[in-house]
Amino acid sequence: MNYCRIIRNDIRKSRLTTMITTLFVALAAMLVSLAVILALNLAGALDRLMVQAETPHFMQMHSGPLDAEPLNRFASHHEAVDRYQILEFLNIDNGEIELNGQSLISSTQDNGISTQSGTFDYLLDLDGAVITPAVGDIYVPVCYMQEAAMKTGDTVSICGIPFRAAGFLRDSQMNSMLSSSKRFLVSPQDFERLRDLGTMEHLIEFRLKDLSALDAFAADYMAAGLPSNGPAVTYPLFRMLGALSDGMMIAVILLLGFLTVMIAFLCIRFTLLAQLESDYRELGVMKAVGLRVSDIKKLYLAKYAAIAAAGCMAGIVLSFLLKSLLLQNIRLNMGTGGNGKAALFLAPAGVLIVFFAIMLYVNGVLRRLHKVSASEAMRLGTGPMASGGAGRMALSHSHFFNVSIFLGIRDVLLQKKLYGVNFTVLLFAAFLLVIPINLYTTMSSRGFVTYMGIGNCDLRIDLRQSVHLAEDAARIAREMEQDDSILRHTSLITKAFQVETPDGTVHNLLTELGDHRVFPVSYVKGQAPVSPDEIALSAMNAEELGRSPGDSLTLITGSGTQTMMVCGIYSDITNGGKTAKAAFPADSDDTVWAVIYAGLKDPSMLSQTVREYADTFPDTKVTDIRDYVAQTYGPTLNAIRMAAIAAAAVALALTGLITLLFVNMLTAKDRYSIAVMKASGFTAGDIRLQYISRFVLVSVCGVFAGILLANTVGGAFASLVLSGFGAPTFRFAVNPLLSCLLCPLLMIYTAVSASLAGTKGIKKITIAEYGKV
To answer: How many Å apart are CA 657 and CA 648, to the nearest integer?
Structure first.
């Protein structure tokens, strides 16, 4: 049988339908291919960066005096240790750092300088080489290449001392803006010149012989009572922080791809069922002359194989054309990975899965050919499109609508299954449009700080570079007591305690002490600690320690052990998601850092208040809480914004194409009915209004159902994903103007425009065309 000729003839008869179906498949294939390409490149680039830099497996930050002898003994005697080193990191006040004359005083990062490591944890240039800076040169973190529009040869001033920006560095530890510190690299000679101009912090780093021994090693480190006045960070956390921003964009693209594949299936189902109905008489004839069902199925399978193959190939080509644009951020921050060649094979493999899934789906729909009766098909000539009864709706019931609008609504209700396909597609499209927008508006909203373990305040003051942190925090608090512009404030001191885990090991527990009722965070269960024997745990710590509200745990402090009752579990996606909050005094323990939060009586005075406190307390970091979130999650927000824009374009394109496809196929199927209506006195405008009213009704219902689903099920899905980062209470902060008004209007406008375009052909249908029928 000459399948090529049959397919060509069939495509000529339905060019628009074939083109739209192919576009759907191409879009789905492109998104799947892009997700595979981006995921492989991200994983490969991150792996290569961490291998080239020889990232520490365990790193303990320590502020204050350091006795290296106990560390040397521990490292030399512990069987898991391969290499060990102590690096100096000189914290510099942000106001003392200028990039091309632009001060970093408003930066939320803890910026400092360091020298190149001689053992591991190397700082690399943009070519992946280990940097050896010359005297007078400085290498700038790659994040400032974009933020401060820096270029090689520009001037960097540290405490009034000028340096030449010799290039930019990648830091496998601190590349991500989610990491609160950034390292500038200078020569050992320049480091000595600056040594007395900042506050020294030590990075105690270990490379292990076997990474699987990491948890046991961390427990041994804590049990040995070694320096731990600061957070401890492990290799998996470095990896997670490096991947998070671009990983979220890839996750959104993958979600778009999945939804688009589902929409492509629905589109194929509709077109295939419509074609089976129009071919009903021919199917009966073929069965009557003895053709087997398997032979008939091959005709349709061949056509849809050609459509799916063309769409999949177009999708692969488009994905490879777009990949460079989407890989820019990954290549800048991490370089190129070793998975580029793998992506050349695995991306088409992912698309091949889409192709076979489509063919299996088409084969499943074609099973209904077994139900076709040869005699009935030749007698009736047409097969019933899937329809559901809605009872009789007589024209006399039209009291509130124009006759054409009533007939349009009536047709939708009488053919629920047919229009249900269009409804479902629009529901998916609305879901696809709104989810990334809701995610972006939530992460950029004021209330998002409550998922960061921070209360919803206006002003944040960080103290991490002072010898007497607690005293300095108390001094600032007294100043705020006298400040009439401050409505309320609280001082929170973070100390590093130890806690016993269920398996008997000891872990470090960063605990924030103070009044947590002033600016409460988002609690999963329970409430903030009030009495000295209460403690609240972050969600990840609660899971790791196996504790719930009402349970007890033993806290090891400088003054001995304390039995604490867990009073609450809260969301925290900072510091690796592992923190705690308590309200007891602990003067005998070293302070890791101190933070002061304040709310203003007049929020419009925030910028002025930030400047005043920054001038009054120059050794602190004073930030608007909105700037804090924007700087911390800036790259993540940019990635999600790009994904949201792409999702909006895809959703609107899908809405227009599917509506155009449905209108085109229905008007082609209803040509005889349209001719009869024209003979009965209906004008072309009346008939067009019938079709437009059908799709307005379906689009309004589908779009708003999709938005409702996005705000409920979508929010639950986002919460499930973010619970892995420490925010199980995550809920969408929906912008009603954008998500519930502008997005629906855009989709409905697109659907109406497509239905207007699709019904133009009604004018060309003449009564004479069916005059002999």
So the answer is: 14
How far is it, in rounded angstroms, from Cα 333 to Cα 335?
Answer: 6
Residue 218 lies in a domain: no
Mean pLDDT of 496-514: 80
pLDDT at position 386 is 43
| Dist. CA 615–CA 622, nearest whole Å | 9
The domain in which residue 378 lies consists of 1-64+229-384
Structural domains counted in the chain:
4
pLDDT number for residue 385:
44
Establish if 75 belongs to a structural domain: no
pLDDT of 393 above 60: no
611 and 711, same domain (yes or no): no
Domain end point (choices 562, 587, 618) = 618
Q: What is the DSSP track for 330-369? A: HHHHH---TTHHHHHHHHHHHHHHHHHHHHHHHHHHGGGG
Identify the residue with better confidence: 487 or 504.
Answer: 487
Q: Position 310: which residue type?
A: A
Give the tokens for residue 57: 């497996």
Q: What is the DSSP string of 39-57?
A: HHHHHHHHHHHHHHHT--S
Beta sheet of 97-99, edge-to-edge order: 102-103, 97-99, 155-158, 161-169, 137-141, 181-185, 110-114, 81-91, 199-208, 58-63, 232-234
pTM of the model: 0.79
Distance CA 524, CA 449 (A): 15
Task: Tell the burial category of 328 from Cβ atoms under 10 Å away from its Cβ (0-12, 13-18, 19+).
Answer: exposed
φ, ψ for residue 76, nearest 5 deg: -75, -25
